[in-house]
Each structure stands twice: as C-alpha cells, then as structure tokens.
Design brief:
Elements: H1 2-10, H2 14-25, E1 30-33, H3 35-41, E2 48-53, H4 57-67, E3 70-72, E4 80-87, E5 90-98, E6 100-104, E7 111-115, H5 119-124, E8 134-137, E9 141-143, H6 148-154, E10 156-157, H7 163-169, H8 172-184, E11 187-188, H9 190-199, H10 208-219, H11 224-234, H12 237-240, H13 243-246, H14 260-273, H15 287-295, H16 300-303, E12 305-306, E13 312-313, H17 317-331, H18 336-348, H19 362-372, H20 376-385, H21 392-415, H22 427-434, H23 440-456, H24 461-473
Parallel strand pairs: 2-5, 10-11
Antiparallel strand pairs: 1-2, 1-8, 3-4, 4-5, 6-7, 8-9, 12-13
Helix pairs in contact: 1-3, 2-4, 7-9, 8-10, 8-11, 14-15, 14-20, 15-18, 15-20, 17-18, 19-21
Cofactor: Mg(2+)
Pfam families: HD (PF01966), PolyA_pol (PF01743), PolyA_pol_RNAbd (PF12627)
Keywords: Magnesium, Metal-binding, Nucleotide-binding, Nucleotidyltransferase, Transferase, tRNA processing
Length: 483
Amino acid sequence: MRRRALEVLTSLAPAALELGEAFRAAGHELALVGGPVRDAFLGRTSADLDFTTSATPDQTQALLATWGDTHWDIGRAFGTIGAARQRGGEHTIVEVTTYRTDAYDASSRKPEVVFGDTLEGDLSRRDFTVNSMAVRLPELTFVDPFDGLADLARGTLRTPVAARQSFDDDPLRMMRGARFVAQLGFTLDDAARAAIEDMHERITIVSAERVRDELVKLLMSTRPRRGLEVLVDTGLADHVLPELPALRLEIDEHHRHKDVYQHSLQVLEQAIALETGPTGAVPGPDLVLRLAALLHDVGKPATRRFEDEGGVSFHHHEMVGAKLVARRLRALRFDKDTVRAVARLTELHLRFHGYGDRSWTDSAVRRYVTDAGPLLERLHRLTRSDSTTRNRRKAARLSAAYDDLEVRIAVLREHEELAAIRPDLDGAQIMSILGIGPGPVVGAAYAFLLELRMERGPLPEEAARAALVEWWDARPHEGAPPQ
C-alpha cells in the first residue's frame, strides 16, 4: 500500500506541489488530507484535491489568487477557499481549509466552526481514521496520528476519537459511515456501530440537504445495498428514509408473500446491473432509476390486506407509493424533476403486469409508451428488475413477455413517432374546421383526436377531419362547422 501511495503521490499535479511551495514560502503549513490520501493508498488518483492549512482564510485567498486562474470563497464561513488552474493539458482544482475543530450545538442544525492551530488537531476532528491521514507538502511527509493506514489495510471504519464523541460533534458522520461501507466495501468497527445504534436519533439535528447529499453518494456507489443495510440495521433509516425499514414488516407469519424489504434491495441491485455505459440509454450510475428501484414498493405497508382465501393483496400500492415517494423526496429537498420522475416510475411500475397473460392491442402499447414518455428506458429496466422470483420457468416467461413488448414498441416506432404522439390535427386546424375561436372546446376536440390517435394510429388528414366533424355533430352546440 505504501508503494502504491508513493507512486500516486509523486505523480500529483505539479501545480499542487507548487502550491505547497507557495504556502511554505509564506510561512504556512499545507497538507493534502482526507479522500485523496486514502485513495492514494488504494492506488486511485482523485480528481479534486483537498488541503488543510495553518493559514487563515484571508491568507489562503491571497495565495490562491496568485496561484490559480480563478478562485472562490463560497465556503469561507467554514474556512474553505477554492481555486482552479489550467496549465497545458493539466486542469487542477483545489480546496484549502484552515485547520478546524467543529462541534454541533445540541439545538442547532449547523456546526460551530472553530479554527485550530495544528494538523494533528485538525485530523482528530475527521470522521474516520482512514480519512485522518495527511501528506505534508511540498516535502511529501506522511502523517498518520490515528493509525488510519492499518485500518485501511483491514477495511475497517473506526473513529479517530471516541465514537460517541465524534458522532455527537457531527451526527452526519453516522451517515458517512454507511456511505463509506457502500463506497469502499469496508466494515464499521464495533464501537462505531454501537454508537450509531445508541445515537441514531441525533441525525435529526442535521439539515435535510446534508442528509440528502450523503444518501445520494451512498446510492450512487458501487455497493449501495450494504450501505442501506447499515442505515436500516442501526436505526438511522428510521429518521432519514423511514419507508425503507417499514418494508421489513411486510413478511407475514405464514410466509404467504415475499419479504418486501429484501425484494426491494434485490430490485435495486438488478436495476444497477441493467444500467448502460456512457453512450447507452440509461448511463450509470443513474440516480432516478436507483431511487425508483429502491422505493417502488413503499406503498405496500399502507395497502396490505389479508384475503379470506388466505392470500395477501396490495391493491393500488403503486398509486399510494407514488405519493409517499414524492412526499419523502420533497422532505429530503430533492429537485422537482427528480421527485416527479421517481414518483412517476413508482406509479407505472405495475403497468406491464398482465401483458404476458393477454394480448395488448397496439393502442395499449402506444399508451404504455406515451405514459412513460422520457422515462421509458428507465421503466424498461425497472420492470425487468422487479422480477425476483426463484421460479426459473416464471422468470423466463416474464423476460420473454417483456422482450416481446420491446419488439412491438420498436416495430410501432418504425412507423409512428411514439416518443411524441400528437393528434393528426393541430389546434389551428381544429379551429379552422369547426369555425370556432380559442377556448375550452378546442381543448376537448384536441383530447378527442389524441384518444383517436391512440386507438387507431396515424390517420390521413381527411379521415381525421371527418372524425372531428362527426364528434362535433354529436355534441350539443349552436351552429355547424363549414363544409
């Protein structure tokens, strides 16, 4: 690991090493910290470089203004100044933060920022020992006061100070623990896990935006299932994503239906496997698909019914689930587009059911495509992933049915513009044919023609005109359209 790290660190952008020289010349300490150092020992190069310094924010800003092409101070309240520099083909982005010692007030959602005076003190306030290693610049001296390298070798997440103190100082570190389990494949040590189990309610003091950002990083990682299991098993999910642990209640004592919690985690893994490369239909990692796969069944707890004949039903759980998903994502301050997309996929995830048992008309296929709209490729993957049956024959039958549906969509797409189905006549033509001005009747006529388009496919203009006139004649109105 040391050899790997040395190779990575000696290949650091020359501009970053030059920055270290500039800080030393000005009488300040500068050290590379956190993720970039950890990743160097894992043989990975970080695109963005995080530094800590003995310089004040004002001193740092003055140095970065000289070093970089541009700089920003959006993080000044936390002692952080950023800068970027382009030299030839090398683009370097850095963030430099003054040594800090932070703590949360018990009644506040924001940490109290207190600047420190030593590198070791700054490292002690970091979340885990694997992120509490540093490299002093420009001399490339390795600093590891909490034995983070040994924990890195063991794949263990341990706090540099007592776990309860660390999580009390910044409760978001509990979320980060779950995130690093997902990102790195590491394991929380016993003290950290026990502290989270005892203190999980403390996460409620953290802002929804910060919780959301950690959840997104977890979901976009390579092993989100492991991180989600940590959230649920420690009780954190009860506060940040309560709909997920609620699914554990859905297996009944007679085992008449599958464990919906485990099913949802499996659907997530299967959906991830169906994400495509950068030029594919759903480039991974795709946040919308992953959220929909994880949350598509959250309506089941509220809709579960035990039937007289011994079965279990969840009627309309997709509609209930869509509302719950939208409510939860809004509470976590997700953007409107993400909220709408995930809720819509939740609402549509059962639409395919029954396709293999009865023949869909072309009209039904058109509706499926039109209702999905730009979410169609994600819906394809969500629907395929939702099959977690161990019955190979049933799984093969479902897969073949969806293959058939995709073929039919492709065939119809060759002949029709399925992605943008419109009536055969536009609003101006409707008004001209009916001799009317703008108003609700035009909207009603447009809706009629759209329904006709769904049922019969594209029509010649004369046939559409005749159908519109027939519709008009059947309505109660004064006057008649021109011939």
